[in-house]
């Protein structure tokens, strides 16, 4: 007789809200400067990002090597807020799936504002900077996801003029997974369809935590 792990026997569920850019016109705060860390960037900046976000330099370099970029908001010489940008698929541990950004679109993920610098609107400023840079580079849409109950992150996202597209509810029991995608009130039908097409299954990750099923990248948080 095979004993099943308690992780497999207990149902898990979680939900995230996806947002997309409403307008490319933003007012940026003069209180911070915005830099972009890409592959081949300065080693000291890689170390600074790692220290500021609680990751290792190896983890930061691995993300850069697979094409992700890190947008950084500075206050003086300090890294105050960061977010990661990807055009390639990224894992969402909250709902145990992979988000494939549509062709020509950008996905913003694993955002963080350090506690000392919160309350200064640096998070929406960084999102606005990402939107402006992406539009100047000829990109189309931007996507970001946040936990359904993370109201602080949602407030910053709306301040940066993003609008909700829909909620993705993920459930897992034993080795079965399922998602329900609910369109946000007033969201354009074509964006809801795009979101449904972008959510795909990836490798199964299990964790003892109710809210975190695996160890992959997190969606937006502050």
Written overview of the protein:
The chain has 222 residues and is an alpha+beta fold. The chain has a domain of 138 residues. It is 26% helix and 33% strand. It is built from six helices and eleven strands. The strands form two sheets. Strands 2-3-4-7-8-1-9-10 form an eight-stranded mixed sheet, with helices on both faces. Strands 5-6-11 form a three-stranded antiparallel sheet. α2 crosses α3. The longest helix has 15 residues. The protein is globular and about 45 Å long. It starts with 5 loop residues before the first helix and ends in a 22-residue tail after the last strand. About 5% of the residues have low confidence.
Describe the sheet with the most strands.
Answer: 8 strands, mixed
Beta strand %: 25-35%
**Backbone CA Rg:** 18 Å
Arithmetic mean of pLDDT: 83
| Helix-strand category | alpha+beta
The amount of helix comes to: 25-40%
Number of helices: 6
Task: Offer a concise description of the structure.
This protein is α+β, with helices and mostly antiparallel strands and 222 residues long. The protein has 6 helices and 11 strands.
Blueprint of the fold:
Layout: H1 6-9, E1 12-21, E2 33-37, H2 43-53, H3 57-65, E3 69-75, E4 78-86, E5 90-92, E6 97-99, E7 106-113, H4 122-136, E8 142-147, H5 151-159, E9 162-173, E10 176-183, H6 189-198, E11 199-200
Parallel strand pairs: 7-8
Antiparallel strand pairs: 1-8, 1-9, 2-3, 3-4, 4-7, 5-6, 6-11, 9-10
